[in-house]
């Protein structure tokens, strides 16, 4: 069945490194492909940690310098699960080395970096994809189907938020393993690139391009100890980021992300209101899609809570039986399976680097607007 | 508009006396009728309390002996909101005096009392009704419409429960004002007559007659101080009552009521599963009906949460605008308005005394089964 | 108990006229007061309709010219439930005639009108109140208590929206009875004054003043037939209005209102996130308050769904027993009862005209920002 | 890390065969153990299907006769994922061959078979476990912790149900692959052994032994075509099974299972009410535990919706970050990891064959009661 080897080199053994490794293992258990992934090497700065990851997940070797990984002849695909500040250089080097590339989101730390990454992969023609995994939650994919079928009609409103509460404590340090998301130099931005990027990617996919935005950001805690220097240093990231948007299709939107919303762990919610129907989804109950269809008979009309676990719903014919839900990590399994399918045919799996660049243009516009106090164009 | 006076004498100024008084005032604000209620007298053993009730709710006079109330010529209708042990005698006297009668549920303390009450009103031909108010919650009435239209198809299952937690403390006394529901002599039974009676009335209305039952009851706290005697006395009521049932239509059911379900204040829930559709409702969110229609397209099928506040839903054209819900007390307003409509036409408002007797036959069978350990017939 | 008469003249017999009339009747059934409301007159342009309202709700007389109503010696209080364009003139005339005034929200069609109304009542010293009824939903009042007790700690975020869907159809006309909310000349603005005003009033009450805003509005359907002229005319109102805000306490907010959110009838939701706790509420399930308290033990921490029907919760000792909820209209009953209490003491019931002016300053700033594309100050 | 090989032979490649295979792969990715599972052989009657399973899941060989599998020297553990009628013989043969045994639930088709299986494993002393996986859903394990810590106090009530709707169509055949659950000869019973067994296992684990039961069963569709014979044959299974129970601790319970509850796919729900606190859980939202703690301050008391995804909650330190939920299949991963831990220490993983026998005694009593119409003892 799986005749072609796909030799993978992974950069990063953190949270994302684990999720990707899971996907490489699980895809073939649930999905058919011509390709068989082979876990050739995992690369990380700490050799001991890399070896632990290799042992647990079955990578055959370890590297501590990503440049060596990229140069290896026995690797077809570089998967970038390292912090944001490494995406650009690794991707460009990998492209130049003719490797396929899968990159964690956001693509670059800003649209400039992303543009250069797009240029590199398009110049060399290597297969490429960005891990905006939420598109592959079955309920979200079902939302896409429903919208594409025209069930919603003309769209009036979109609203999304991504709420967390893990950085409220002011004695939480910044920087280093697990905390690089608070270090602006590494992360590029705060919740804008980390959380809003997810919201924007899904929004563009579901509702088309965003024309312009008006944003505001805030850094609630201005100084934090830096784990790498041991000093209290200014915090450069945005703790919260909110924006209004006009989509190209005429709909209006609110977007919000924060790590200061007490009570919410990872509450990514989205809603879209059309002339004839509406849809809501949230990550905390990720296997449900809420759907309102105005064409239902009036007296018995109501929001339908769709439990997305049936075989006629996206991806679910590959898993269990109706009523039994799957987890967060499955979205990565689906994305990797789709990537393999993309390799087999004419249509590469989305989102490509170019698709992901569109999100970075919006996040850049949001951050700019927060500084200028003006509406800013999110167009290319 | 309202040409005919309907002169009312109310027995009882407690919780139910207040709810009924509210209904007498509010019906004419929202519903049209030939009849205009006139609050002639309120009767209660404590004259001072009766006077307070009369002042607040606009009753013109007070009585302390219900026999005098029943004999008064200036009263057309006796409304019984007194404890259960008084229903039988007042109702029969009122019937013999030719008064219309509205009686709180349960009708009698047992089916024997209820039968005699039915005989009395049927012999004298006076209008009569029992306050099983939950039939008139708009969401429950909508459920009835849906079932009557055949949307559910053949019925397989019914389940209902009524969960409270207000008697868990063992220092709660029994007997006297507000606590007569714990005194078996006054109440007749515990949760069987108090809570299950509601569940059974709705069930028979929605799903037809119950053939037989297997029940179990428990009195968790065996002795409580009695407020009237000052002594610790055995508790005679059932604290919890559960039963299995077979309906005449072949469906199976579970019923449960308790005052020992920590966390639930008045959680009356019902669910009915048919071949083609199902319905759920609960009193804590009384303005919602959950409805599942298997004929919806598979991929987007789900339980619909119907917010019952629209003008095309039962009773709601009389109230506000879509999205604005009404309260518990409105169910009594609806019932009284329906009673007045019943007076104007050929079809008396339901449930009549005879309708309510059917419930008492079931509660008697449940209590009997709990003693015999056998299935018992709930038929007449 | 109720020795002092409070003679009321009501202007308007529409939706709000009915809700206010209900409050005048119900307040004395549930709340004690020195004052006894007397329904002296209802005023409306259509005499027949005014007479129907008077008959149903027990007003002793009718007027068709509000100027005559204001001049009557037998009236102590003018209640304004007429369309927005009449608020200003009636209120000022009533103030000059020495009448107490209760006015539907928004106070004026813009802050200029509102300022003049404030000046008038403050000059003459008459009691005054604006019907921002949502403050008196028990769950919302409980939220206020929780916040005032400091349970939330420092506030980071506020978000509110008010979503409806009743104007999506493009053949819905504008203007005239029931449709004046679509006529900019009468309403002043669209959803900004109608729906956002509610959100802003509650927000300021719960979270303090708003410093500045960035807004956007949209009129999705540009022309509608006008019922008064019979011609298709431009639509002057905003169909949707969204804004970002900075509160004076440093918290950030999103606000949104629309009548184009398919599936939502009157979904007013609010959420406030503090350092230690968070609160959510929505109008569709108005008797519930969602509350997250970070001081709960970690493993068993979660959003608490508080069913606000207990005697120790605001206003609920006056109604039924735990578990039994009350309706939308009760918020007006509470507000009127609080107004009467305000008359008896030193502290007038909130919100006064001056309190309500603060909301109009924000709505004006939102509309201005939507035109300028700039952040605008919402301060006085 | 994983020095000891654990050589596994699996019988069955259906739904359960897939779930178990997933567990064998995933356990070592998330949990530490001295043991390393090795997938030596999969056995099934259809060789081609067995080979497909072996290829997909990495089993080194296939067998078509389970007797050969049991006799193989290169296998340490037999995992039984075959239909119910095969459990007894395979387990006893495996025990006699000195193999460890993991067996799908229910253990036997009735308590007699189960007793013999218990005798076999206890006689030979082989490690044994039954796959009652729901104990290992993190939210359910958390419920167990809460109860064991005494947070609930004295228990008054337990209620559980398992509702499905997949057999409502009368043209669904019985027997053969995927449909053996409708064939009484193979399955032993219908929903009693299939669904109620799950409910009972969890109930006994959480709330202790069940003393006696009163049950009722129904077969709604009396005849179905049999896929193996091609003939319409009587249906021998119970389509629905309901029972009342008394636990040894004095609490009362209702249990219900059916495949005729339209709208429910696999809705296993459980609730337990104690003096001080209550707990609810359901399989459709398996990552949430609802918890009510009466010791919370009254005004802000409510059911807590605990999103069980934090590192201090059972098993969740092994997976992702707070807010990201895991799927149904993870419960099997946890159970296998626990089994391995049990091998390393003194305390075998639960439930053992003996633990599982307790459930079969209850299901036998339920079926007997449904025939006798009497309460039946569920004791040994």
Comma- or semicolon-separated keywords:
33% helix; homotetramer; 380 residues; Rossmann fold; nine-stranded mixed β-sheet; Dihydrodipicolinate Reductase, domain 2; alpha/beta
Sum this structure up briefly.
The structure is a homotetramer of 380-residue chains. The first copy, chain A, contains ten helices and 17 strands.
Explained architecture:
The structure is a homotetramer of 380-residue chains. The first copy, chain A, folds into two domains: 4-130, Rossmann fold; 134-377, Dihydrodipicolinate Reductase, domain 2 (2-Layer Sandwich). In chain A, helix 1 (15-30) packs across helix 9 (330-344), helix 4 runs parallel beside helix 5 and helix 5 (111-124) runs antiparallel to helix 10 (353-372). In chain A, a hairpin with a 5-residue loop joins strand 14 (277-282) and strand 15 (288-293). Chain A has helices at residues 15-30, 47-57, 66-71, 87-96, 111-124, 138-148, 184-187, 191-207, 330-344, 353-372; strands at residues 4-11, 35-43, 61-63, 77-80, 100-103, 128-130, 155-163, 210-218, 223-225, 232-234, 240-247, 252-258, 267-274, 277-282, 288-293, 303-307, 376-377. In chain A, strands 16-15-14-13-7-12-11-8-17 form a nine-stranded mixed β-sheet. Chain A has a six-stranded parallel β-sheet with strand order 3-2-1-4-5-6, sandwiched between helices. In chain A, strands 9-10 form a two-stranded antiparallel sheet. With 380 residues, chain A is α/β, with parallel strands linked by helices. Chains A and C meet through strand 7, strand 8, strand 11 and strand 12 of A and strand 7, strand 8, strand 11 and strand 12 of C. Strand 16 (303-307) of chain A pairs antiparallel with strand 16 of chain B.
